[in-house]
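Students often ask why inverse folding is considered easier than folding. One informal answer: many sequences map to the same fold, so there is more than one right answer. In these notes we will look at a single instance of the problem. The structure comes first.
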């Protein structure tokens, strides 16, 4: 038989139960407080994220705002292309006959073509002599970087030899994936070099595409890269986006002409099909003769 002398009294049992209930209540209150704090922190974090996204979008939209018209750089044409020709000394330069005292209206590029429209780039010449090589490229495009790495030297030689006139149409298809509109900034930088240092255009273009795998450049970095390739003092032109309307026209015209992507290449009006003819140089040599 248990010793009743060691059993707690009713009052003691009641007191112990009350103490246990008090501790449980305190633990529950502390847990609720912690939960409330976590919820508040989560809400604050979400608000900070939303604010950051809004700021980023606003900044991007502001940087994407494009004047309706603007200047055409030296070597630029009415199609938004930069035209490269032989310089007569074994090298290349932008076409000296295309001077920079002209303007272009972005609204004249036309409306985006409906999906499924057959590509029909403006300004193609099927009987050009020297041969007309039109290349659509985007400085943020990995495939353009590969194409340039494989064929830029050969193309430059064709131009220097007078076999080909190159028209590079720099578009901004990949701005949609860039918070800094890098494709447009790169197209503007190329126009700045064409205008101020025409004989350095090809070197700068090749350098810009060569670094594409390393990621986007700032305006200052592009200005430094231009200087390294013979085009110094272009900080203001690149930073002010002086030729942004020209670059936008090239982009909008490509959309209006149903250009499918980059790189896209036409030689005397005939499009290069990389699947049917994997080696562009071999295909082009047959056309150039």
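Output (designed amino acids):
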């Amino acid at each position: 038989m248990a010793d009743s002398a060691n059993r707690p009294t009713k009052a003691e049992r009641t007191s112990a139960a009350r103490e246990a209930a008090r501790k449980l209540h305190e633990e529950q209150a502390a847990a609720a407080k912690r939960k409330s704090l976590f919820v508040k922190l989560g809400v604050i974090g979400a608000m900070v994220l939303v604010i950051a996204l809004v700021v980023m979008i606003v900044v991007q939209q502001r940087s994407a705002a494009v004047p309706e018209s603007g200047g055409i750089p030296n070597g630029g044409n009415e199609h938004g292309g930069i035209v490269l020709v032989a310089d007569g000394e074994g090298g290349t330069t932008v076409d000296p006959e295309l001077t920079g005292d002209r303007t272009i209206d972005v609204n004249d590029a036309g409306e985006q073509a409906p999906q499924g429209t057959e590509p029909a780039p403006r300004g193609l010449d099927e009987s050009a002599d020297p041969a007309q090589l039109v290349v659509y490229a985007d400085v943020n495009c990995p495939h353009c970087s590969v194409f340039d790495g494989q064929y830029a030297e050969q193309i430059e030689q064709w131009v220097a030899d007078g076999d080909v006139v190159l028209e590079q149409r720099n578009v901004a298809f990949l701005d949609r994936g860039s918070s800094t509109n890098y494709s447009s900034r790169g197209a503007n930088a190329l126009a700045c070099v064409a205008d101020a240092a025409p004989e350095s255009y090809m070197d700068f273009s090749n350098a810009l595409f060569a670094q594409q795998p390393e990621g986007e450049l700032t305006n200052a970095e592009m200005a430094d890269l231009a200087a390294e390739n013979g085009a110094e003092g272009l900080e203001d032109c690149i930073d002010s986006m002086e030729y942004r309307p020209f670059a936008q026209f090239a982009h909008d015209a490509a959309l209006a002409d149903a250009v499918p992507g980059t790189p896209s290449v036409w030689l005397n009006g005939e499009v290069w099909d990389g699947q049917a003819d994997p080696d562009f140089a071999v295909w082009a040599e047959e056309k150039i003769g």
